Amino acid sequence: MENDNSTQEPKKYPSGFVFSACPVCGGTSTIAKELAQEDIDTGKLPAGVELALVQTILPLVGPAAANGLVIQGVKPITVIVALCDVCATCGTMYCVKAEKGKGGVQSQPQGVQNKPIHRGVA
């Protein structure tokens, strides 16, 4: 399959990037938008809401800053948030928006461990 949109550039804003179409086929509809459209039409979700199947948050923390996270409480740090979705036309997963902002990291007191939550299958 020939990619006619290989030169498509994202819109760049001071805080990040927005990809308005699939980089493979140029489609503008995503699975999350399609599945939520009925809820938007009935007013259960506000018009213009940003939807994506996957949200990834990458903390930008170097070794020096990571040492400061041992203190109990919330420490504000810089993060990159990427929203990814699947093209409803061709099925390609791609990044629809990526931006840099501030986030908080909640540290735990020493001795507290994360334990998995086991849920039964209904």
Question: What does this protein structure show overall?
Answer:
It is a single chain. The chain is 13% helix and 34% strand. It has two helices and five strands. Strands 1-2-5-4-3 form a five-stranded antiparallel β-sheet, with no helix packed on it. Strand 4 and strand 5 (93-107) form a beta hairpin. The longest helix is centred in the first third of the chain and has 11 residues, at 31-41.
What portion of the residues fall into strands of 2 or more residues? 25-35%
- Measured as a percent range, the helix fraction is 10-25%
In terms of quaternary structure, the protein is: single chain
User: Total strand count, please?
Assistant: 5
Sketch the major β-sheet. Answer: 5 strands, antiparallel
**Roughly what is the average pLDDT, rounded to an integer?**
76
User: What's the arrangement of strands in the largest beta sheet?
Assistant: 1-2-5-4-3
Low-pLDDT parts are 1-6
Elements, N to C (H/E): EEHEHEE
Structural class: mainly beta
Q: Alpha-carbon distance between the termini?
A: 42 Å
Rg (CA only): 19 Å
Query: Which overall shape is indicated by the principal axes computed on the Cα atoms?
Result: globular
Annotation field: number of helices: 2
Provide key terms for this protein.
34% strand; single chain; 13% helix; mainly beta; globular; disordered N terminus; 122 residues
